[in-house]
Design a protein that fits this description.
Layout: H1 7-11, E1 32-36, H2 44-54, E2 58-65, E3 71-79, H3 82-92, E4 96-97, E5 100-101, E6 103-106, E7 111-112, E8 118-119
Antiparallel strand pairs: 1-3, 1-6, 2-3, 4-5, 7-8
Amino acid sequence: MDRDRSPRRERRGGGGGGAGERKTRRGPPDRRIFVSNLPFEMKWQEVKDLFRKEVGEVAYVELFDDENGKPRGAGVMEFNTAEIAKKAIDKMHRFDYKGRKIVVKEDFDAERDKHGRIVGRGRG
């Protein structure tokens, strides 16, 4: 079975829907991190490869675009264990990559919109 691409993700690209319709994937918060200050040209595969090389297996990467479809240089990542997520925070926070110090922190149990901004913090 060839598993190079995920046609399911591409099918949802483009088109309509209301604001905030798409939510980011949410695994256990202790396995998720938020990354920012990434080079804007950096693609999700490059982020995944970097973190895999430095800390261990990466389960999921999502990078966010702004309202104009331009990269925000930020995203969320998920790991298979809480230990790898903690190692990613400890090792990769302030990691120098292409002249930028990557910011890596816990994602907590935040719900984010499709641009990566936190929505609905418990208040209606």
